[in-house]
Amino acid sequence: MSAGRSNRFASKRVQAMPESVFATMDRAKARARAQGLEIIDLSIGSSDVAPPVVALAALRAATHNPETYGYCLHTGTEPLRRAVSAWTARRFGFAPDPETQVLPLIGSQEGFANLLLATTDPGDLILAPDPGYPSYYGAIALAGLELARMPLLEPNGYLPDLSSIPTETARRAKILLMSYPNNPTAAVVTDAFMREVVAFCRAHTILLVHDFPYVDTVYGDYRAPSVLTQLGALDTAVELYSASKSFHMGGFRIGWAVGNADALAALAKVKGAVDFNQYLGIQHAAVAALEGAEADVRRVAKTFQARRDALVEALGVSGWSVPLPQASMYVWAPLPRAHADSFAFALALAETTGVCLAPGRAFGEQGEGYVRFALVRPPEVLARAAARLREFAEVEA
C-alpha cells in the first residue's frame, strides 16, 4: 500500500502503528536503482552469511520425511525445546525446564508481539528503550499499551537510568523491555547491571523482557550475559532468542523464549490461537545448529569483527570518528556536523550515492542525530560505502 494513502478498513490499532523505516528506505532504494546506482544496503540487519551446513543438511533431510509435513502441536516441539535447554546449560550454566520454561517462536519478533498480548491488557504501561528496535513500537501500539520511554543516552553508556523512573510509573508498569547487546546502539551490559534490573523488576512486580538476538555477535573477550542467570530472574523474566542472528537463518523464522513459566504458559495459549508452530523441518535445522554449529558461530563472529574494524577505520579516514562497538552487527554513528535531520540525511545519501543507512530517528526520539550502519557486506564493500559517504559529505558541505 502506498505511503500516505488512507485505508478505511484499518483499525485504530493499525492506525496507531508507526510506518516501518525499512519500507521508507526501500522506496529510497527503488529511486536510487531507477537512476542506475549500485545499491550498498546497510540499512537492515539481514545477515549475508550462509546458515551452518549442519542446519541446511537437517532441513534437506526433513523435506524427504513425510512425518514432517503436517501441523506441529506443542508436543511435536519437544526435540527443539530439549535442544534449547541443553544449549542454555552449556552456555550459561543452568538448564531451564524444557516443558515449562522453554517455548519455540516463529522468530523473536513474533514472540515479543504475542507476549505483549498474552501478559498485558489495553491501557497497561510498558517501559521501553528509546532508541529501540522499530518493531517494538508497532507491537506496543498493536497491544494498546501506554508507552513510557527509557532514554538510552551516550553519557550513560546507552543504559536506562532506573533511578530516574518515577515511582508512580514503576508502580504502574507491567513490562520492562530491554535488549543487550543493543540494537541500534551496539551497547553492552555487565552482570552487575543485569542484577540491578532484575532487582528493580522484582521490587515492582514487573515482567522483564530481554530481547537477546545478538547473544553470539560479540567481539574480543566480551561475553554477553543472560539476565536469567541472576538471582530470582526466573520469577520475573523472559528472554527471547533468534536463529536469525546466531545462525543466520533469518528467512527460516525460528526462535525461542526461555524464562518464567507463567508468562510462557500465557504466551503458548495466545500462540495456540494463531499458529501451529514452525514447520518441523525448520525446527530440525535449529536443533542441528544448536547442537553442532558452535565453531561456525565463533568463526562468523570474527567475520563481523573484521567488518566492524574495516568500516570504523574507513570512516575515520573520511574524518568521521565513530565508537568501536564490542558487540552486535551495527555501528551507531553521530551525524556529520553539518547535518541535523537523520531521515533527510539517510534519504539524500541513498538517492545520491546508493548507500543506504537507517536513520536514527526511526528508532525513537533519542535516536535523532545518529545513523545506524549494518555490517552486512564484506570489508571491501564497506570501505567503498565509506568513500561514497566522504564524497557525499563534501558535496553537501
Explain how this protein is built.
- This protein is α/β, with parallel strands linked by helices and 397 residues long.
- It has 2 domains: 12-50 and 295-396, Alpha-Beta Complex (Aspartate Aminotransferase, domain 1), CATH 3.90.1150.10; 67-292, Type I PLP-dependent aspartate aminotransferase-like (Major domain) (Aspartate Aminotransferase, domain 2, 3-Layer(aba) Sandwich).
- Helix content is 43%, strand content 14%.
- The chain has 14 helices and 12 strands.
- A 7-stranded mixed sheet has the order 2-8-7-6-5-3-4, with helices on both faces. Strands 9-12-11 form a 3-stranded antiparallel sheet. Strands 1-10 form a two-stranded parallel sheet.
- 48% of the residues are buried.
- The model has no long low-confidence stretch (mean pLDDT 94).
Question: Layout of helices and strands, plus pairs?
Answer:
Elements (H helix, E strand, L loop, with lengths): L11 H5 L4 H14 L5 E2 L11 H11 L14 H15 L9 E4 L2 H12 L5 E6 L3 H9 L3 E6 L15 H6 E6 L12 H13 L3 E5 L25 E6 H4 L8 E5 L1 H14 L5 H13 L1 H24 L12 E5 L7 H12 L1 E2 L1 E2 L10 E5 L4 H18 L1
Parallel strand pairs: 1-10, 3-4, 3-5, 5-6, 6-7
Antiparallel strand pairs: 2-8, 7-8, 9-12, 11-12
Helix pairs in contact: 2-13, 3-11, 4-11, 5-6, 5-10, 12-14
